[in-house]
Amino acid sequence: MTSSRDPKRPPVFISAPIAALVEGIYRADTTIGDVREKGDHGLGTFNDLDGELLMIDGTVYCLRPEGNAEIIGDDVKTPFAVATHFEGDTEEVFDRPLTAHEFEAQLHDLIPSKNLIYSIRIDGTFSAVRARSVPKQSNYVPLAEVAKVQTIFEFKDVEGSLVGFYTPTFLDSVHVPGFHLHFITADRKQGGHAMGVAPLSVRVRLQHAPSVELGLPLTLDFLTMERTRDIEADLDKVER
Amino acid sequence: MTSSRDPKRPPVFISAPIAALVEGIYRADTTIGDVREKGDHGLGTFNDLDGELLMIDGTVYCLRPEGNAEIIGDDVKTPFAVATHFEGDTEEVFDRPLTAHEFEAQLHDLIPSKNLIYSIRIDGTFSAVRARSVPKQSNYVPLAEVAKVQTIFEFKDVEGSLVGFYTPTFLDSVHVPGFHLHFITADRKQGGHAMGVAPLSVRVRLQHAPSVELGLPLTLDFLTMERTRDIEADLDKVER
To answer: Domains (ranges, CATH) in chain B?
Structure first.
């Protein structure tokens, strides 16, 4: 494991508190262009939950309910996105097959302190990647209920990348606590929100952030939001 | 009320999540110089809780347990500080005497949305300002217990300024939710953490922030912090 500490390293940008998404605020004025100004690595969703967002090497993809990936332009909007400039300050190679459960435990062991936020990239081959996406919402449904209409698909013996973050529990109203990873295949044609990944041979890179830049949207929906949901319970339903 | 919206307005900088202070992390490596780079308006405390911190017009004061104010140099360190560049985008004048209870209700009415973070400055004359400070802690005591050794003092018929912030409840692990204000007299000789203020004639200025910049300290204490406290209950004991 190598480490280089640079006090000038970039923050993790979070366009809006996840609490707003949990309350059903599915639209904001943040554009993909705004998100790309904050980094080249990220995840999130699009207005009306129109697919899962993944940004890798500066390109933003929408991962559709059928599992297809599509490049998205800078003018499309997002109610929730997380981004950073990613280089990786530690690197670990796992070169034997692991179950999804074993791999998750190994990832937890890689986190030096559970009180920092980390950007994570995992590249390699997988025996199985279980992923999901959600269809565009035309009516208001609480986020916890959207889980009922999500599509779940599985990639077998696949090469690809996971992009995401680890967030401390004390920031659970800001971003999903623990690991949050989105997957895209090496040919950039398919992917989704990762629900369990079993690696064959992968390289895991981590980068800790010295700070979080949290946006507070000036949309009427956000400004008038009333808090009615249990964030922790709802995120458990939709993200796990 | 006047309002000017500038998308380039500065973020509110928070040097560390208040959750860490609640857990008894009373030291960090953030210097007053670091805080002054983030703004000219702020509050917080010093390492070992050695007095209350107030920054006004770019000068940082320590408000001591006896209520005395002292200018603090850039090399002193803080485990928790909040700062922004303050100009004020709305202004309201209250020119009749109000009780502390009435004034707090009026301040709540001034907040356009309880989901944004606001910087607040209040200048004028007060019939009474109830304030407190805390003595330097030489041993670890949970923050909720420190309330037992705080000193409380009252200024009567005093001219001065309140400096502080309003924070949404969904950021309660990041900063004290609701109003958090520190007081300093017009001659800059005395002050403390405000616990209740009854104004005679004051000017209230608010400034909303488009984003929060939250620092995550790289100290060993923070990295190894275990969460054992009830943040909401503990902050209620110590800040109210």
So the answer is: 12-239 (3.30.1330.80)
